[in-house]
Every structure is written in C-alpha cells, then in structure tokens.
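re: ur question from yesterday

yeah so i grabbed the chain u mentioned. its 286 aa long if i counted rite. heres the sequnce exactly as i have it in my notes:
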Amino acid sequence: MAFLKYLFVIGILLISGCAKKPDSVVINNLSSSKKIKILGPSTQYTNDILEVSVEVQNLSQTSYDDIEYRFKWYDQNKYEVGQNLSIWKPLFLEPLDSKKITSLAPTPKAERFKFYIKEGADDKQIKRVDSHSMQNNNPYYGVEELHLFTEKMVSGMLSSEIFDGKPIIDVGGVENKTDEHIDTNLITDSIKTAIIKSKRARFIDRSMRAEINSELKYQNSSKYIDKSSSKKIGKQIAPNYILDGSVVSIKQKGDHFYKITLKLHNLETGTIDWIEQKEVRKVNSR
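ran it thru and got these structure tokens back, copy pasting raw so excuse formatting
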C-alpha cells in the first residue's frame, strides 16, 4: 500500500512538472533614450483563464507620459482571440516609478500572449489610426472609454463562475445618466460580441421577439411553407438572467469622472448574482 501511495505521489509530481507554461512574447518598441526596465511576464490561472502580470520600471529621474501598452491573445493554434479587447492603453510613470500591469485573457482558449509597449505618437496631423488605440486628449467620453468599459465588463464576466454554466442572458439596457450623448447600445453590443465569441453564454434579443414570433406564425400557418422545414412554436429558450446597468458622470472644469455599473439579475430568484464597475477619470491639464 505504501508503495502504491509512493507511485501516486510521483505521478502527481510528474504531471505538475509537465504542465505547459503559456508561450509569451514581450515586444519592446521604446527608444533607448527611455530608461525603462520590463520584468516578467508572470502567469497564473484564475477560474481556468490565463492571467498575466508585467512589471514596468522607470529607472530615470524623468516622468514619462507618452507610453502605451497592449496585450494580444492567441489560442493553441496561434490564432488571435479577443481582438476587440486588444486596445492600446496609456502608462504614466513618475521618476523611479514602478507599475505592475495585470490582464486577464478574454477567453479560456487563450494559451499564448504577446505584450507590446511603445511610445505614443507625437504627430498632431489627422491620420487613420487603430480604432482601439488611445488617441483622445480631451476630458469627454469617447472611443477609449467604450473600449475600457467593455474590456472590464467582459473580463469580469469571464472570470465569474456564473458563466461556467453558459447562461442565457437578456439585455435590459444600460441607462445613460450623464449629460452627454452616450450610445450605451455600443457598450452592450461590444460585450455581447466578445462573450458570444468566447462561447461562455448566449443572448436573446428582446427587440426581435415580435418579428421572430410573427415569422413563426407565418411558417406554421401558411400554405406556401413546407411544414417539414417550418420551425416549431414553443421551442424558444427563456433567459436565466437580465443584464442592465448605468453610466454616470461627475464633472468639474477640465476634470471628468465616469463610472459604468453592470448587473446580472437572476430571473428565478430575483437576486443580483453578478455586478461589476469600471471608473475612468479624465483630466485636461491644459
């Protein structure tokens, strides 16, 4: 018996030792004039989702406010996943400052990643740019906030145990409580796209209910439709959760604060089973 226990322990050690370490690449496009040191990356898994940490150190007595970074994620076949979440983000470093950057993969399929770091563009002329890059230099809500809000919400959802059960979700809407025109449908559409691609949940579209039901009635009652091809009435799946939330803002001169809150309401119990928030503060230093 002792011999069998010994073999079992040895087997566990062998399996642990052979666990695959995620492939990683750090792409440093900073000029040599910037005294920046990059440590890592280090990795771990949170609910079977790859989490990556990179430490960036400023070894100089100079402040840097023109540095940007991004992560790209790849599956085992080296195909990129979660492209809509791979956005350039600003990194501000004070003299002798150190920042730890942590990011959660957009899907459990992500087994490889690349970390990019570069200097921001100085050219002020109008040009075409990556729609996910940080370009906005005013304190108002813009494209960057859309991507930051989406990334935070999707990461929060994919790290929640709720999504292990592949729930069906109905989107109730995100209320705009700011005094700006913010199309919150862009936020929920981006979230739905990322979550559906991850295959961790499905969504229903309540705005299509009337049209879907009308088509079902037509298929099942019209003499022009082959009944063997008509879709059956009563097969629609009821949602487990309703997603809703709000975007709020607090504004002072040149200083704008935004916060998004999203919640998942359990339709059966009436409880809030998941909630996430993301805050963004934009200060115009001019």
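noticed a couple things. The chain has two domains: 23-120, 135-220+236-286. also Residues 23-120 form a domain with the Immunoglobulin-like fold (CATH 2.60.40.3230).
anyway ttyl
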